[in-house]
């Protein structure tokens, strides 16, 4: 009987890990729906980019306040996970603070977890206020109406609760230790509890059984909360905590101005210009540009799962700032929403996608949005995890123009001029040098 | 002075004479046909002539790089243009290209290599910076001394190719006061012409992008808004007119500012 809590703990732990793994695998499968693109070259530059941008948070610093708060939460998230190792061992083996034999090092560890825990709490609290009280356009935007706004708030509330549970657990533990009660009496230095020793007074004159109850319930809340949080990630924008690393590793390392040259087009153009050119054996039938998520590359799809909807892209987009419908953030959110829909479709149909009459272009992203883009790369520059919304817009435009012939009249005129006169305006190529002789 | 007829050698002429220029000047469509941009073209020619750099243009053999077509989604047309241009450039065995248009610059530099066109491509501000650093251009004192100049980063020079310093380093030589807009360099704000917007009406919105950008520039109350792109030139000039500030604030290309102060 006395091991029942440990068995329950073990079963929940395994269930949590299995469920998480299954969901991550599903996301991996969804990402791999995308077309191939080679991002395995130049490994040293890729590692450097990941260290700089994801680990070093180099692109966050342009906005100092959120950057500092984010550093609290980010460092806290990583460091406090060391504590989880102890919690898991204690949970399985019915030990209490199994790592306390580390002595002074343990004091330092626990003390730093507490300080970080408090900073995470503070960071999340300010984030919560920024989202819900302050008037920050990118966080108030209609892009976030509905689920995305709730998602963000759930995460912040959960993180605050987890940190509060951790600190109140230590506070009860500290008080029990001071009372030299049973196995709590580990003789730990009070310095291990720089925050919780102050919170302990909130327990007033609570009896030993209620303190034990408080310690146990916060312990369980904390670890079950972590398992729940982990399993919430795949359903949430918060998945960026994991994908930020691969997503920056697989960044586009070319100049931002360099857009891909479609090789399918190259073969056709070569055949047109040179009758002796024999195109390589026809690959699978292709579509020019992208109509749906299947036509995007796996990196573009990974981008959509890496997006945490911070809206820096949109807040720097000249089209959006001047009131156009385009929002690069919304492009990424729409891509993910559609990809999730396609994924669910595959789940229902034994892993095969069954045509559902919908597509990314048309049902999720409109012409008005993609045609408002200035292709200025402001969004790409801004993204703290190197997401490239512009490449998706480019591919949707290609589909519109090359498959649907749906360019506006003005653009068609420009293109006809290029075709006929070699210039976007109606001037004769023979007049190209007139500027030199004109007065 | 900026409108005198000048003789500009073409690649065809030089080749016929058995000569090889040091650099090809890629004029671009705007530089060839747009009345305002033609003045920038001439300023670049005056600088090249001044330093005695042997150059040539393609003239009638030059065709649109295809930038606007590509960004409008027409990859076919882009690649047709690219391959035709590459045939011409490779035919003349061109090694080095200078252009006054960041869109041509970006396309030639980044998008032509995979299609068989490999050249050293520089933007005119980079070339001018090199000439100034090498002491090949001596500037007269005066004209812009003490004036307030702000540089508007063209997206396809700046973010697209991370060239922020060359134009600024050139402008510094004018002994003017360089003022930065709040959104500059990496955070520069598009003039509104990129992504083929130059050739279409803007989508529905509250404001034109060029008006917003010009407003940002005019907050500094500058004497000159300098830029390095013929499309930015159009957009910023229209923007300044929109605010009726053309008396106070001129929109000038970096090449024009330098050409006007070349020590004769």
Structure description:
The complex is a heterodimer of chains A (439) and B (264). Chain A is an all-alpha fold. Chain A has two domains: 4-31 and 63-240, Fumarate Reductase Cytochrome B subunit; 263-426, Orthogonal Bundle (Fumarate Reductase Iron-sulfur Protein, Chain B, domain 2), CATH 1.10.1060. Chain A has 20 helices and no strands. Chain A is elongated. The model of chain A has no long low-confidence stretch (mean pLDDT 94). Chain B is of the alpha/beta class and 264 residues long. Chain B has two domains: 11-129, 3-Layer(aba) Sandwich (Rossmann fold), CATH 3.40.50; 139-259, Rossmann fold (3-Layer(aba) Sandwich). In chain B, α7 crosses α8 and α9 packs across α10. The model of chain B has no long low-confidence stretch (mean pLDDT 95).
- Work out the helix count of chain A: 20
Number of strands of chain A: 0
Mind summarizing the main beta sheet of chain A?
none
State the name of the first-level CATH class of the largest domain in chain B: Alpha Beta
Q: What's the β-strand tally of chain B?
A: 8
Strands of the widest sheet of chain B, in order across it, are 2-1-3-4
Note the main attributes of this structure.
heterodimer, A: Fumarate Reductase Iron-sulfur Protein, Chain B, domain 2, 2 domains, 20 helices, elongated, B: about 260 residues, Rossmann fold, four-stranded parallel sheet, 11 helices, globular
């Amino acid at each position: 009987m006395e091991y029942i809590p440990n068995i329950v703990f073990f079963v929940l732990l395994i269930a949590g890990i299995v469920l998480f793994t299954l969901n991550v695998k599903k996301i991996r499968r969804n990402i791999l729906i995308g077309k191939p693109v080679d991002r395995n070259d130049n490994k040293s530059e890729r590692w450097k980019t990941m260290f700089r941008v994801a680990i070093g948070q180099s692109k966050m610093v342009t906005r100092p306040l959120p950057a500092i708060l984010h550093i609290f939460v980010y460092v806290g998230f990583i460091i406090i996970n060391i504590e989880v190792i102890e919690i898991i061992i204690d949970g399985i083996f019915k030990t209490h603070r199994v790592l306390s034999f580390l002595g002074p090092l343990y004091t330092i560890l626990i003390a730093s977890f507490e300080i970080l825990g408090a900073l995470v709490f503070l960071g999340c609290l300010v984030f919560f206020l920024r989202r819900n009280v302050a008037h920050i356009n990118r966080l108030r935007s209609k892009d976030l109406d509905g689920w995305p706004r709730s998602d963000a708030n759930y995460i912040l509330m959960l993180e605050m609760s987890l940190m509060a549970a951790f600190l109140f657990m230590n506070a009860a533990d500290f008080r029990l230790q001071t009372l030299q009660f049973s196995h709590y009496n580990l003789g730990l230095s009070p310095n291990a509890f720089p925050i919780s020793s102050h919170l302990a007074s909130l327990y007033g004159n609570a009896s030993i059984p209620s303190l034990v109850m408080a310690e146990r319930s916060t312990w369980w809340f904390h670890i079950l909360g972590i398992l729940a949080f982990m399993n919430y990630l795949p359903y949430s924008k918060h998945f960026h905590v994991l994908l930020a690393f691969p997503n920056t590793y697989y960044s586009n390392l070319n100049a931002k101005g360099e857009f891909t040259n479609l090789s399918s087009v190259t073969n056709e153009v070569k055949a047109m210009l040179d009758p002796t050119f024999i195109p390589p054996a026809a690959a699978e039938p292709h579509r020019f540009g992208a109509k749906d998520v299947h036509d995007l590359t796996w990196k573009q799809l990974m981008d959509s799962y890496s997006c945490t909807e911070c809206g820096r892209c949109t807040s720097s987009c000249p089209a959006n700032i001047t009131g156009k419908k385009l929002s690069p953030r919304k492009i990424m959110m729409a891509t993910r929403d559609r990809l999730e829909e396609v994924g669910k479709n595959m789940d229902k149909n034994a892993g095969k996608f069954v045509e559902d009459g919908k597509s990314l272009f048309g049902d999720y992203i409109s012409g008005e949005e993609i045609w408002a883009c200035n292709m200025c790369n402001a969004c790409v520059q801004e993204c703290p995890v190197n997401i490239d919304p512009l490449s998706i817009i480019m591919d949707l435009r290609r589909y519109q123009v090359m498959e649907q012939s749906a360019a506006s009249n003005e653009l068609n005129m420009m293109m006809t001029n290029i075709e006929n006169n070699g210039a976007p305006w109606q001037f004769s190529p023979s007049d190209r040098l007139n500027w030199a002789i004109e007065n | 002075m900026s409108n005198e007829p000048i003789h500009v050698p073409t690649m065809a002429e030089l080749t016929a004479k058995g000569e090889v220029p040091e650099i090809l000047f890629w004029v671009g469509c705007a530089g060839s046909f747009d009345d305002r941009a033609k003045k920038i073209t001439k300023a670049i020619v005056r600088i090249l002539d001044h330093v005695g750099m042997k150059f040539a243009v393609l003239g009638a053999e030059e065709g649109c790089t295809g930038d606007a077509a590509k960004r409008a989604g027409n990859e076919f047309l882009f690649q047709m243009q690219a391959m035709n241009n590459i045939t011409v450039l490779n035919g003349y065995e061109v090694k080095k290209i200078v252009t006054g248009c960041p869109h041509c610059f970006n396309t030639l530099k980044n998008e032509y290599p995979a299609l068989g066109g490999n050249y050293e491509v520089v933007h005119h501000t980079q070339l001018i910076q090199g000439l100034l650093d090498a002491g090949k251009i001596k500037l007269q004192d005066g004209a812009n001394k003490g004036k307030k100049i702000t540089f508007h980063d063209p997206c396809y020079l700046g973010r697209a190719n991370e060239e922020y310093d060359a134009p600024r380093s050139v402008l510094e030589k004018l002994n003017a006061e360089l003022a930065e807009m709040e959104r500059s360099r990496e955070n520069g704000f598009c003039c509104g012409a990129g992504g083929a917007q130059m050739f279409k009406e803007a989508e529905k919105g509250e404001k034109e992008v060029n008006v917003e950008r010009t407003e940002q520039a005019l907050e500094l109350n500058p004497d000159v808004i300098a830029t390095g792109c013929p499309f930015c030139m159009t957009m910023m000039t229209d923007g300044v007119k929109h605010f009726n500030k053309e008396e106070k604030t001129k929109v000038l290309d970096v090449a024009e500012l330098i050409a006007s102060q070349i020590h004769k």
